[in-house]
Design a protein that fits this description.
- It is a single chain.
- Helices cover 76% and strands 0% of the residues.
- With 245 residues, the protein is mostly helical.
- The protein folds into two domains: 1-73, no CATH class; 82-244, no CATH class.
- The longest helix has 38 residues, at 207-244.
- The radius of gyration is 21 Å and the shape is globular.
- Mean pLDDT is 72; it is low at 1-9.
C-alpha cells in the first residue's frame, strides 16, 4: 500500500529512491566499473519500469481493471503525444512563445513556505504554476503534467531568470557534491538524496515543488539526528569516566 500511495502521488519518489540507492552502492567505484556493473543496469531497468509501468499499474488497482487492459488501451501515438517528458520539454518553447507570466511573489512565497513542517496547514500551496500551464497551455496531457524548471524561471523573470535559475541549479549541485565528499554516516545519505532529487527532479518541476520533495527527507534526517544526539552526548560523558578509572 505504501508503494501504491507513492505511485499515486508521483512516480518521482520511487525513481529518486532507486537513483539514490544506485549512487550510494556505486560510491567510490571507478566510473567504467560503476556504469557496467550489474547493479547499475538492474537499477536502470527498475527506473524505466517505474516510469513506464507504474501509472497503468496504479490505475488498474484503483479501477479494478486488469493491468494488461489498461496498458493495451493506450495507443503508441497517444502515449507519445501525452507523455509527460515530451510535454515538459515542449514548455521550453511554448512558454516564451505565448508570453506566459507568473508572479515572482507567488514563487518566492510558496518556496519559502516549504521551510515549514506542513505548509498546507497554513494555506500555502505549491501547484500554482502547474495549474497555470495545465489550464492555459497544455490541458490535454495524460495523468497530469508537472512543470519545467527553466520555463518557470522564464515566466517569472524572463531571460534573466533563466540565466539565474541555471546558475542556482549548477551551484547547488556543486555545493551538494562538495558536501557529499566531506560527509559520512547519515549526513552522507542526506546530501546524496538531496543531490539525487535535484539531478532527477529539477528539469521537470518548479522550485517550490523541488523544495517540497526535499522537505520530508530533511525532516526525517532531523528526527534521526535529534534521536541520536542524546545518545551521543551520553556516550561522551561515559567515555572520560572509563578512561580515568
Amino acid at each position: 500500500m505504501i508503494v501504491i500511495n507513492m505511485i499515486a502521488g508521483d512516480r518521482t519518489t520511487p525513481v529518486v529512491a532507486v537513483v539514490g540507492v544506485i549512487v550510494t552502492l556505486s560510491w567510490g567505484m571507478p566510473i567504467f566499473r560503476a556504469v557496467f556493473s550489474i547493479k547499475a543496469w538492474f537499477g536502470a531497468a527498475l527506473v524505466l519500469a517505474v516510469i513506464f509501468l507504474a501509472k497503468p499499474f496504479y490505475i488498474a488497482v484503483k479501477t479494478g481493471v486488469s493491468f494488461s487492459s489498461v496498458f493495451d488501451s493506450t495507443s503508441t501515438m497517444a502515449f507519445q503525444s501525452g507523455w509527460e517528458a515530451f510535454q515538459t520539454h515542449e514548455l521550453l518553447e511554448r512558454v516564451p512563445a505565448l508570453g506566459v507570466s507568473y508572479p515572482a511573489w507567488d514563487t518566492l512565497r510558496d518556496s519559502m513556505a516549504q521551510l515549514l513542517v506542513m505548509p498546507s496547514a497554513f494555506g500555502f500551496d505549491r501547484t500554482g504554476y502547474n495549474e497555470l500551464i495545465q489550464t492555459q497551455i497544455i490541458s490535454y496531457a495524460t495523468y497530469g503534467l508537472a512543470s519545467d524548471f527553466l520555463a518557470h524561471w522564464w515566466s517569472t523573470f524572463g531571460l534573466v531568470g533563466v540565466v539565474a535559475g541555471g546558475m542556482v541549479y549548477g551551484f547547488s549541485l556543486i555545493f551538494l557534491n562538495n558536501r557529499i565528499l566531506r560527509s559520512w554516516g547519515t549526513g552522507f545519505f542526506l546530501f546524496t538524496m538531496l543531490a539525487a532529487i535535484l539531478g532527477v527532479y529539477a528539469h521537470r518541476n518548479s522550485p517550490e515543488n523541488i523544495l517540497a520533495l526535499m522537505r520530508p527527507i530533511v525532516l526525517a534526517y532531523a528526527v534521526v539526528w535529534l534521536g541520536i544526539l542524546p545518545l551521543h552526548t551520553a556516550y561522551r560523558r561515559i567515555m572520560p569516566s572509563r578512561i580515568q578509572t
